[in-house]
Amino acid sequence: MSHNFQAVWKPIIFREYIGVKPYPDNLNNFPEDIINPKISEFHFILGFATKDYDQEGKGTGYFKRTWNYDYFSPDKVRELKKKYDNVKVIISIGGRHTDSSQYPFNPAEKELWSDQAIDSLKEVIGDYDGEKDECGCNNVIDGIEINYEEIKCTDTDFAHYIGKVIKELKKQVPSIKVVSIAPSDLVRPHYRRLYQEYHDYINWVDYQFYDQKVSSKDEFVNIFRELSNEYQGKLLAGFSTDPNDAGKISREVFLEGCSELIHRKLLPGIFVWDANDSAVPRSNEKPFLLEEKAQNLLTGSD
To answer: What tens digit of pLDDT does each residue of 118-167 get?
Structure first.
């Protein structure tokens, strides 16, 4: 196995998925208490913008938001940004599989899908547009993420049609400054091709380590270093607090591995799936403990 990528990193970013699952009683707004002011960038990733499917289960390209708009409204985003100048808000496009929901990438008509996706996503983003206020928060939404876990087409088609959406949204929507993609082990070839062809438009890569079995710190570090060669230093390490992901990678392995990568100056940041589960831990721990530990690790406070 070759590990040719070399970089000198100071960790700069932490990201938190929110709005992606049913809401606990104590999560009806952005949990601002988890924001570490020492982190250069803190991203809340709102999920999901999902598309409609036709009777044959093919994607139409018409996207709509699925998060609670009242909980995470434009006014609440602006208020958050007034308090924390390191915060950005990203919209995640696609959807994560659950027992009851499936969100594959399988366009009904590929060229039409891209055009309709661009138009409908502009509307979703546009719902958050408003007049510029004293905080300068006219850019309420700062970016998008591509998050498909099941892809029913070739890697070439995926790269072409998703790449077109990324390119056009970045060109047509001035506030979209950040684009990320969220590969996992099962769809690595598709995201690899997407990144190869559109790397100039992609800022971060949120790799879902929690979607595969990782048994040790050394295994985690080796996987990260291999992926770093593919993604040129834009790779972030992800952990899940979702009980459905338990048993794939332990919190200890993840944090020890991240500590090792920080020591080697290879880790620019961490993301966590998801605030909805972290707000109600399944043990006697306090809410958002993993988020606190991860940010302390990134800022050298741990």
So the answer is: 999 999 999 998 655 555 556 799 999 999 999 999 999 999 999 999 99
Q: Convert the pLDDT of each residue in 18-35 to its tens digit.
A: 999 989 988 999 999 999
What residues form DSSP beta bridges with 205?
Answer: 181, 235
DSSP structure string for the chain: ------------EEEEEESSSPPPTT-SS--GGG--TTSSEEEEEEEEEEEEE-TTS-EEEEEEE-S-TTTT-HHHHHHHHHH-TTEEEEEEEEE---SS----B-BSSHHHHHHHHHHHHHHHHHTT-----TT-TT----EEEEEES-B-S-HHHHHHHHHHHHHHHHHH-TT--EEEE---GGGHHHHHHHHHHHGGG--EEEE-GGGS---SHHHHHHHHHHHHHHHTT-EEEEEE--GGGTTSS-HHHHHHHHHHHHHTT---EEEEE-HHHHTS-SSSSPTTHHHHHHHHHHHT--
CA distance 117 to 130: 22
Catalytic positions, written as ranges: 149
> Is the Cα dihedral 47, 53, 57, 60 positive or negative?
negative
Q: What angle do CA 29, 250, 95 make, to 5 degrees?
A: 45
Nearest to 39 by CA among 13, 76, 62: 13
